[in-house]
Amino acid sequence: GRLHRRDVFTGSAQRPAPRRWSRRWDYDYRNNPVREERDDDPFSCYHWQYDSAGRLLSQDGTLPGREQWRWDAAGNPLDNIGEKITHNRVTQLNGIRWRYDIHGRTVEKDDGQTRWHYRYDGEHRLTEVVSQPRDRNRPQVAVSFRYDPLGRRISKTSRRTLAGQLHGKEVTTRFVWEGFRLLQEIRNEVPLTYVYTDQHSHEPLARIDGVNAPDIFWFHNQPSGTPERLTNAEGRVCWEAQNSAWGKLLNEREVQLSGCAQNLRMQGQYLDRETGLHYNLFRYYDPDCGRFTQQDPIGLAGGLNLYQYAPNPLGWVDPWGLSRSCSNDKSSRPDFYVGPAGPSATMPSTAYRYMNSTDMYAAKTINSKSAPLSYFGYTKYKAGHEARDAYQIFYENGNPKSWSDARLLGEFNTLQLYKNGVPQVKVPLANGGEGPGLELFTSAYPQYGKGGALQLLPIEKGTIINFDNVTILPE
């Protein structure tokens, strides 16, 4: 359900003290927020308007005041109606200019005060950002990034120089992951551990600073999951911030926060204060334009505009930098997984295996919710005859020579099929594995069905898969 009101009290749940603050939200029929009221500031009220495509048109509020946005038909932001954007690459907006390379990656950004240079590796991952300030009295900043085989960032090192000399200490932050969620960041040997609202969510719940005598801080978030406050165990506000609609930090107040800044932003995003960019797992997000700095690694599977974050950031989230989802959907996993190789290592996150519901292994599969994996695909069918028709499976009721009734459906997470960032799957040989050619889409047995289903096999025969759900389909 949608979050309509949040009240924060101090004291125990049995005997709460007076209310500290409150938030109230109203929504339109598309689940986009249209109004927010804050009782801790009588003049703090926000209003949002959208067009028929759900794109954010305006925001009225205390900070930063009234903002308006203009869009072309492809969802690119414009300074003026009628501007032409080539290949969805925004080159100027609100006084800021961007430049791209032949791969569509942002290689330069100029905000009038500083020119930023971006460098990438062969996998299109950002490896270094170097600032070039126009004021020669300001230090130059160089930030480098390292990644693991799954494409997750594991360290960030920043270095400042002035007149060619090191200005201050070199600072390295290390990152520890739980799957594809940030579990810890370690700065100055102090671990900051993040806890989330549930096992699938990217919305932060708490931050634990240190190990032996840890400080615990609690997140208070917008309905979209963006943090706006942190409180300690006594309910005192230790950090609060106001952002633009597209996530740019506008105002920040920090009190007693263990000396470690709060850098979590929109779900799945981490603010790099040295560059102003948000690390978004498989890409980087630029809040100055509300877009990604690189094209989508999964191509058009993530949407027609390869740079777009979402039609609006208030009703949508993209925690992996791949494909947006509704911010009210707290339980679904991302649509795709992407290995370091990009498109060649991309798989939908959910797959389906259709098995025989009457053989000697069916009961064991149902009870254990696991089985050796054979042919599988990405389409979910509602009945056994639909699956047999698509996969061209021979079946006659009572005939012992039948291959399968395809009524035992196992749904599983394809993350199990990755090893060192590479999917361990292959396209099967045609004619039931006899060949000679490959058969990505079923077509070898037209006498048993229309075919056309995408099919894959695990590279290693007998690979055991754990199912999320096992059900028996109707005939």
Mean pLDDT: 90
Count the E strands. Answer: 40
Tell me roughly what share of residues is in helical segments: under 10%
What is the domain total for the residues?
2
Helix tally equals: 3
The structure class reads mainly beta
Strand proportion: 35-45%
Unreliable stretches (pLDDT < 50, length at least 5) are: none
Note the gap between the termini.
34 Å
Major β-sheet profile: 16 strands, antiparallel
Shape: globular
Q: What integer value in Å does the Rg equal?
A: 26 Å
Q: What report would you give on this structure?
A:
This protein has 475 residues and is mainly beta. It has 2 domains: 87-325; 349-472. Helices cover 4% and strands 41% of the residues. The strands form 9 sheets. The protein has a 16-stranded antiparallel sheet that branches. Strands 1-2-3-4-5-6 form a 6-stranded antiparallel sheet, with no helix packed on it. A hairpin with a 2-residue loop joins β17 (171-178) and β18. The longest helix is centred in the C-terminal third of the chain and has 8 residues, at 384-391. It is globular, with a radius of gyration of 26 Å. The mean pLDDT is 90.
Question: What are its keywords?
Answer:
3 helices; 475 residues; six-stranded antiparallel sheet; single chain; 40 strands; 16-stranded antiparallel sheet; 4% helix; mainly beta
